[in-house]
TrEMBL record:
The keyword Transferase applies. This is Hydroxymethylglutaryl-CoA synthase. It comes from Serinibacter salmoneus. Residues 9-173 form the Hydroxymethylglutaryl-coenzyme A synthase N-terminal domain. GO terms for molecular function: hydroxymethylglutaryl-CoA synthase activity. Residues 185-256, 276-330 form the Hydroxymethylglutaryl-coenzyme A synthase C-terminal domain.
Length: 399
């Protein structure tokens, strides 16, 4: 058993957190209209209003580079020696998407870059690995970048739970936003609830089974957290859950509350989690980024001062791995928030009609190495320009 909950001696955690998402969006009302079903199935039943949809010249690299560039604009590059890229929407079986980001944002050669994968969980592993590196040398900083596009087949039950976003975090000693506390509770079990074989661009899922697997794994991580000496359930001012759809966070919170001997009414659960859900309701599933989008949503939209508050993070990746850990919100955190920036990237997305969304969904890239240019559509700072000789090409849209 490790030591009871404490912030690591040299407090380490998230100093800055920046989000990016897509150029387009699809309102789930338009999807419900197309399907001829009650839109409340989405707005109430799964708790989603809108999903982000990538333009043809956007991908996990362009979103990640946009979020990372914002972190570097504010903080500079001093001390950064590692970039950990978390994704389950890999663009190459070999090369890390993080290496493209490294080049696009102009990081120096003296930075190690690697990609991590375990479904929606791997950004949390990256955060813990970053803390380990910084504990060894507190002068170092680590960029943890999570970027994903959630894609299911048209007409499948998962279609309404698509989305796309990136979250970039600067992890360092004496962080400005949230110090990550010990211990962490972890859980792994081999289960086929959601997966994407190498030859598919869309995920396969056992929808109902995945909900059970999520609850089972989060419950397991929570039990391990307590066994490791973690803080009591009622001491958390808020908990940010992985949100494939926001209603899933409500199911998970109720599950943990019951394990803790509580029996909250649905309205109490909704009220407790509301601030963590505002962004995800409008972005959709962003896989690895989702739980950190929830953290940004909480910090940006909570009406009141969270200084000193203990916040829980409940991370889940199908297949499956879960982790529960706590963090302490730092004095002065409100000066570091990016409320207007985040509001703007969510609000500026252009709505698609259903036909245009279907066309984009069906667009595929050539696999024969021929020259291919993508249409210039994104207004973001980086674009996926196309391919040739089996190589992806990226460019800045602005100087
Ligand atoms: N008004 C209000 N509510 C309605 C409604 C209406 N008109 N119609 C249906 N509902 C409710 C249902 O009662 C149900 O609520 P409960 O779950 O609380 O019972 C909810 O809306 C969904 O209805 P269905 O179960 O009928 O929906 P579905 O068959 O279309 O499937 C889904 C929903 C399983 C989430 C599906 O969208 C899916 O497979 N999504 C992808 C998988 C996923 O996100 N799994 C989550 C756990 S795995 C994970 O977290 C990793 C990850 O990121 C993928």
């Amino acid at each position: 058993m490790s030591q009871p909950e404490s912030v690591t001696p040299a407090s380490i955690g998230i100093h800055d957190l920046a989000l990016a998402t897509s150029h387009y969006r699809l309102d789930l009302g338009a999807l419900a209209d197309h399907q001829g079903i009650d839109p409340a199935k989405y707005s109430v039943g799964i708790g989603q209003d809108v999903m982000s949809v990538l333009a043809p010249d956007e991908d996990i690299v362009t979103m990640a580079a946009e979020a990372t560039a914002r972190i570097l604009e504010r903080n500079g590059m001093d001390g950064i020696r590692t970039l950990l890229f978390a994704t389950e929407s890999g663009i190459d079986q070999s090369k890390s998407a993080g290496v493209y980001v490294h080049q696009l944002v102009g990081l120096p050669e003296t930075v190690r870059v690697v990609e991590l994968k375990q479904a929606c969980y791997s950004a949390t592993a990256a955060l813990q690995f970053a803390i380990g590196l910084i504990a060894r040398d507190p002068s170092q900083k680590v960029l943890v970048v999570a970027s994903d596009v959630a894609r299911y087949d048209l007409g499948s039950s998962g279609e309404s739970t698509q989305g796309a976003a990136a979250a970039a975090m600067l992890v360092q000693a004496n962080p400005g936003l949230m110090a990550v506390a010990n211990p962490a509770g972890v859980f792994t079990q081999d289960v086929m609830d959601f997966w994407r074989p190498n030859y598919r661009s869309t995920a396969l899922v056992d929808g109902k089974g995945s909900i059970k697997a999520y609850l089972n794994a989060i419950g397991g991580a929570w039990t391990d957290y307590l066994n490791q000496g973690g803080a009591p359930f009622e001491s958390f001012a808020s908990i940010c859950y992985h949100q494939p759809f926001t209603k899933m966070a409500s199911k998970a919170h109720r599950h943990l509350a019951v394990m803790a001997g509580q029996n909250p009414a649905p309205a109490e659960v909704a009220d407790y989690l509301a601030d963590t859900m505002r962004y995800n309701r409008l972005i959709g599933n962003s896989y690895t980024a989702s739980v950190y989008v929830a953290l940004a949503s909480l910090l940006d939209t909570h009406d009141g001062d969270l200084t000193g508050a203990r916040v829980g993070l409940a991370s889940y990746g199908s297949g499956s791995v879960a982790e529960f850990f706590g963090g302490v919100i730092q004095p002065g955190y409100r000066d570091l928030l990016r409320v207007q920036e985040h509001r703007s990237i969510i609000e500026r997305r252009i709505p698609l009609d259903h036909t245009a969304y279907e066309v984009l969904h069906k667009t595929t890239l050539p696999e024969d190495g021929r020259e291919y240019r993508t249409a210039a559509e994104t207004t973001g700072p980086f674009r996926f320009a196309g391919m040739g000789e089996h190589m992806r090409r990226y460019e800045r849209t602005t100087d």
